[in-house]
Amino acid sequence: MKFPSAVRLLAALVPALTPFFAVANTGAHPFGLLLTWQRDPSTTMTVQWMERSETPPPPVALRHWNAAHSKADAAEATTTVQSVELWPDMHIHRAELTGLLPDTAHRFRAEGWHADYGFTTMPAVPRDAVKFAVGACARPYAGRSLEATLSAMMEHSPRFLLWGGHLAHAKARMRDVVERARRWDAWFDAMASALIDEARHITPVVAAIGETEVMERFVFNHPSYQQIDDYRRYMGPYFYQLFAFPGQPGYNVLDFGDYLSLVILDSDHSNPTDGAQVPWLDRVLRERRHVPHVFPVYHFPGYPGVAGAGAYGEFEAERVRRHW
């Protein structure tokens, strides 16, 4: 099935986007460098960054090693390269590192980089409390407030950041493409500036989808909506291309051994709350009755504590309470 495409519309605007993505591959931090997980966080890590070029760049080797060992012991993963549909000259390098030791510091470096970077895998069985940060609704274009918030968060040394949607506040619409590009650029710039320490150790991010990651905010604003992969990609092209997790269909579960599960949900943005998520969620929760810590993560709150927009009586909040 074919859906409206913005590629032709945006192709003529690529020169206008250039100033906002000129930071890509300048020899400083790789642009858009982001760490996340797709599978067991104790033994894997997904590394991605963006590269600007007129044609898709070739895959590169990403070397990684136990930080306590020599670089000579490095393993190697080859990136996949995905072109970002709505930015015709922007491409994503992505590699999942596997077979890692739990609760261990690792370093990694790609071909052409001027420095290496680090991360620490999660424990398979935690010996101490596992500390992570939770947030949502960023406005990275509004001065330096996002970086200030992230910097304050980093003072508490969280193991990862869990983000419940409203990432760049850059709605996936077909207009205002320059402003949208500026907001995504500001979001990735804030991530690069705040989620890295002096040793270039990076804090991973796990993100859920929110209303500003899709066109028209909610599925019921699309009369032709179908709960299929192609339509979700059409509604939320940036989210589904820029983030490896949760991936399709837009909700997923991430298990940290047998002690923690993050259940990432979609609150009517690219999947209806009363659709296929309901039996899926029921099965996921039943299968994890033995897990002591289970956190559902979704954007529109079922039990908000505010008045006005997002209040308890709103249609979307009522749907979350009724179906989940």
Structure explained in plain terms:
- The chain has 8 helices and 14 strands.
- The chain is 22% helix and 21% strand.
- The protein is an alpha+beta fold and 324 residues long.
- The strands form 4 sheets. Strands 1-2-6-5 form a 4-stranded antiparallel sheet. The protein has a 4-stranded antiparallel sheet with strand order 4-3-7-8, with no helix packed on it.
- Mean pLDDT is 86; it is low at 1-27.
- Helix 3 packs parallel to helix 4 (177-194).
- Helix 4 links the parallel strand 10 and strand 11.
Q: If helices are DSSP runs of H or I spanning 4 or more residues, what is the number of helices?
A: 8
Average of per-residue pLDDT values: 86
- What low-confidence regions span 5 or more consecutive residues with pLDDT below 50? 1-27
Over the alpha carbons, how many angstroms does the gyration radius reach? 20 Å
Question: What oligomeric state do these chains adopt?
Answer: single chain
Q: Note the beta-strand portion.
A: 15-25%
Biggest sheet statistics: 4 strands, antiparallel
Spatial order of the strands forming the largest sheet: 1-2-6-5
Summing up helix and strand content along with how strands pair, one would put the structural category as alpha+beta
Using the alpha-carbon principal axes, give the shape: globular
N-to-C CA distance = 30 Å
In short:
By secondary structure, the protein is of the alpha+beta class. The protein has helices at residues 7-11, 14-17, 145-154, 177-194, 229-235, 237-242, 277-287, 315-323; strands spanning 34-36, 45-52, 61-66, 75-78, 80-83, 90-97, 105-110, 117-120, 133-135, 161-164, 205-208, 252-256, 260-264, 293-297. Strand 1 and strand 2 form a beta hairpin.
